[in-house]
Amino acid sequence: MNLEQFTKALPKAELHLHLAGSVKADTFLKLARKNGVALPEFDKIEDLYRYDNLVDFLQIYDLVARSVVDADDFHLITYEALAHVANAGGRYVEFFFSPQVHQDAGISYQTMFGGLLKAMDDAETDFGLMSRLIPAINRELTIERSFEFLDLVLPFRSDKVIGIGLDYDEEPFPPAPFKPVYDKAKKAGMRLTAHAGEGGPAANVRDALDLLSVERIDHGYRVMEDPELVARCIAEDIAFTVCPSSTVILTHWRDLTTADHPIRTMLDAGLKLVVDTDDPPMLQTDLAKEYRLLGETMSLDRRTLADLALNSLDAAWLDDSTKRDWRASWSAEIDGLLTASEDPAYSN
Ligand code: HPA
Ligand code: ZN
């Protein structure tokens, strides 16, 4: 069994995926044409999915989001995104979606959630993939807008709409001002996460934990600038959802093979990491590929990759008894995969 087969077969959860970042290029083109959204010049549609920093990326991300208009469009992109995770061997997904960009285009929350939730049900029925939704606040907008976001999102809170996130450009927009918004979401029973330490400093990771009360950190790379905070995150078992291809394309940590790449140093420090995709088609990747990439560039053995996959279950917002049951069955499957990997008949 080669590494590609192994990483695909590995039971694993995806916990950091943005819906608008998960639209295939040809679906983007089809929806943009259908809904009259003007696109920049391109030779091949895939050329639009090229950028070399987060700010440029977010412009295309918004354009993709603007191409999604009616409930059928939301259904289509959600169903395709979930099918993509299932094809990479994902067994469970918690994914972000950015309602404010659609709201700015005049789309009602009923339309967005209607298409989305139906697609989540259909994915579970059609290919057995369970998923949960995390509406995320665009931190570049005002605090007033994020309170309005909460008022619109909270009525949809359910066993499927389980928490909130915070994304877009972190460097000029730190987490601290969002404390009252997160306090209100927590009181309403929402689970909490935030992008922090991706473009902003380690202090943003600390503020996300202390002020926003997040349960996990999305990206978090710059935590490594603060050894005391690293020690605390280890002691408190804080999970970091790291996205290898995203670092290569959207940050200045371009080389996964270097000893000072933060995913390498976070792993070596003993932080709890979960491997995720961020925006699979927009970053030309899938969940199995992210595991393979880490395995290859950081010379991780298969046991280590399997332990990372088990971290994804540990850090998931599933109830404890489901996690216990899944841990038992995933561990048994993993033992089988590791044994098959050792068998020379399956080698390579
Ligand atoms: N960071 C912030 N916002 C995002 C990202 C990201 O990596 N991907 C999609 N929106
Ligand atoms: Zn992200």
Measure the end-to-end span.
6 Å
Query: Mean pLDDT, rounded to whole units?
Result: 97
Give the strand order, joined by hyphens, for the main sheet: 1-2-3-4-5-6-7-8
List the bound ligands. Answer: hypoxanthine, zinc ion
What is the percentage of strand-forming residues? 5-15%
CATH architectural arrangement: Alpha-Beta Barrel
* Secondary-structure element string: HEHHHEHHEHEHEHEHEHHEHHH
Number of helices: 15
- The structure class reads alpha/beta
* Low-confidence blocks of residues: none
Taking the sheet with the most strands, its summary is: 8 strands, parallel
CATH class descriptor name: Alpha Beta
Which fold name corresponds to the CATH topology? Answer: TIM Barrel
Q: Roughly what percent helix?
A: 40-55%
User: What do we call the CATH homologous superfamily?
Assistant: Metal-dependent hydrolases
CA gyration radius, whole angstroms: 19 Å
Number of domains: 1
Can you count the beta strands?
Answer: 8
